Here is the input.
Amino acid sequence: MPEKPKALTELNFKPKGKVFSSPYDWRDQFIYHLLVDRFSSGRKNIPPFSPDITPVGRDDSEGEKWQGGTLKGITEKLDYIKDLGCTALWLSPIFKNRKESNTYHGYGIQNFLDIDPRFGTVKDLQQLVKEAHKRGMYIILDIVINHTGDNWAYQGGYPYYYSEGKRFDFGFWREADPLSGIQWPDDAVWPVEFHNPDWYRRKGEIRNWDSFPEYRDGDFCSLKELDTSNREVLKALIDVYKYWIATADIDGYRLDAVKHLENSSTAIFCSAIREYAQKIGKRNFFLFGEIIGDDRFIDQYIARNARIPDSHERFPSLDAALDFPLWGILEGIIKGFINPAELRGRYERFREFYSDHGQASQYFVTFVDNHDQIGRSPRGRFLYNNPFKKQAVLAIGYLLTSSGIPCIYYGTEQGFNGGGDHDKYIRECMFGGKWGAFHTIGHHFFNHNNPIYKEISRIAEVRKKEPALRYGRQYFREISGNGIDFGYPINGKCTLAYSRILDDAEILIAMNLDSNQREDFITVDSHLTMTGKNMVNLLKPESAYPVQVIERRHAVRIGLAPHEIAILKLAV
Here is the structure.
């Protein structure tokens, strides 16, 4: 097999060596999501960021340019990620983009069979995966199957826009020198089979992102939409991504823009990848997707134990989806802007969709910050214009102690607070570069002693030790300030409390969403958490909270400092 194959016929699907086994359950994992170009350059002697000392001042145009992050740089920072408590890395797309493009995010792919040289080489990817596996960590690649980069132009060379499903004429492949024809590696698109103009929908750029079939068939701005309804195209994409599992021992894929594919194509792709992974020994290869929509819309892709009868419109194919419904409300709840009843209601609706709502936690990758804040204006990280830094710990603490597979976006653990009218403001460089966080340049942010980093790592360690926090059913708890009047909080400045229950074990989580001290009674399960015993805060092992009978309820009274989280369990 050539070192850099140019055609699908050159691919070898035999793994390079013994494959790394999949995790038994992905709920055991804590995912770290990073943009390769913005995480670590691997350069030495970069000074650390120091508040009030590091000078500010950066060129605003730099945010849309390549900054220099590499795969080798990520390998060098694996221990930083592991010490945070993360056990899996989700990397932004790493495949070759056009040489002249500013698609530093990686979503404008020109060559599906090679690593972008700005990120490194195939060997660099293999070494990253190998080093992660040595540490018991997993690698998930962000992949694109609905479009390619801007590798060709419509007839006339100017943009065409979606118009009632009309198919436009192909113009020409983008080449450095049209007189010499298509040259490897920087002209047109690869593998060579993708040179077929009929493999693309050719219906122009999307203008109405909520109109079907326009949002499925149109181009993502200048990026060219593949015709995945063509089985040859779909088979080619399946072969591409089988190849990368064989080549680099990848552990999972995050599918970009699932909404912009036929449901059937997503199902066929996932089934084929899953079967291949099982054949070579990866029996729980992870496939999760970006699906923008409410729970009913997401359900059609993931609900294997759904109450809703199967129909021709349902193709449950993904293992999980990014939890956009939670993302839409969690920030406002943690900050006290949204009634906590909305959070309770969201989980109660799981009973409509799932015959075993306790197992719904495996279907969602939960997050609070991300790289692509569709629908938000302005775009901003959780701490954007937010003086209460401890709220970031509450937000990630919620992900780590509630239903779902938790995911943290790089920089959140260092208090990144970017925001503005463009995605670049939420894509700062961890290694400084010319686009560092807090308007700085040339200073890194890999600070193990940052209070946010330290608190998140402590909560992650508790989660690792307590199965109930990973698999348990979730129930919200009533509170009382006076020990007489109990009820679910309706004011955002409250104690938010919920239990995770697994078999005979109850773990109670309490969060003070107020900027003032609170001391509330919180109900617990009377069958599992008995009176006459104490609960201990696993984040403060010396603590003791007696279980009492209050108004015929079992309850504990907990004092919490402003924006403090407690994780309680019966003392042994």
About this structure: The chain has a mean pLDDT of 95.
